[in-house]
Write a structure and sequence with these properties.
With 128 residues, the chain is mostly helical. Among the domains are: 35 residues, no CATH class; 28 residues. The protein contains four helices and no strands. The chain starts with a helix and ends in a 7-residue tail after the last helix. The model has no long low-confidence stretch (mean pLDDT 76).
Length: 128
């Protein structure tokens, strides 16, 4: 029954019986003592000038910005195309997304914002 919830419960019961009730607490302490980085919950300022929480936040930001899929390929009319330049054929069970408008109004408040974000926010609205 290895790999099942019941098997894990039985293994935990056996470990506690053989090694004592505080078995998991002791092995957790060993791992904590062996750590030298302070962890993401650390309030100690590191060599980079960041605390653990700030470093975790920055690492998450960087990871979230990285795309593994690359940019979408589109023709002049906004239709999806393949790498070879052919029109992309969507599978029959997939709903085809709406085309992005070619002319999009820019934000009036002067901040530089991503045009893609602007398009997503107002994709249903009619553009002048």
């Amino acid at each position: 029954m290895s790999g099942t919830k019941l098997g894990g419960q039985r293994a935990a019961k056996t470990n506690k019986k053989i090694h004592g009730e505080d078995f998991y607490a002791r092995i957790g302490q060993k791992g904590g003592r062996n750590g030298h980085t302070g962890g993401f919950a650390s309030d100690v300022v590191g060599k980079d000038g960041l605390t653990g929480r700030e470093r975790a936040k920055r690492a998450g930001q960087i990871g979230g910005l990285v795309s593994r899929r690359g940019t979408a390929l589109r023709d002049e009319e906004g239709n999806a195309i393949t790498k070879e330049g052919k029109k992309y054929a969507y599978p029959k069970n997939v709903k085809r997304p709406r085309k992005c408008p070619t002319e999009v109004p820019t934000p009036e408040h002067g901040k530089k914002e991503s045009i893609r974000l602007w398009q997503r926010l107002f994709s249903g609205a009619k553009h002048a």
